[in-house]
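Figure 6 in text form: structure in, sequence out.
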């Protein structure tokens, strides 16, 4: 019975993720009017002009990654940690049921 509940919970979680990605994808399409490369030339010019001044890094890739995308990367690492913890938790429970 516990295994069935766990499987139902996993299906619900995966369905929720699928629905969330679908809704997000549709919202992105609405915001960009279906164009995937909107304002890329403007972004390139901004980064080429301001990266050295704003970050102090002569390497543009390093400047963008460490200054502009730092919080994004930290949150991605946090999500990865939470996901790995959840997988370990689910795996441990399976071992005790057998």
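Output sequence:
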């Amino acid at each position: 019975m516990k295994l069935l509940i766990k499987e139902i919970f996993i299906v619900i979680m995966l369905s929720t993720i699928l629905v969330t990605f679908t809704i997000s994808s549709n919202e992105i399409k609405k915001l960009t009017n279906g164009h995937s490369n909107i304002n890329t030339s403007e972004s390139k010019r901004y980064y080429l002009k301001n990266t050295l001044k704003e970050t102090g890094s002569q390497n543009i890739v390093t400047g963008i990654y460490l200054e502009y995308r730092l919080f994004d990367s930290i949150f991605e690492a946090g999500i990865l940690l939470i996901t790995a913890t959840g997988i370990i938790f689910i795996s441990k429970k399976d071992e005790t049921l057998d």
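Caption detail: The CA atoms of residues 3 and 9 lie 10 Å apart.
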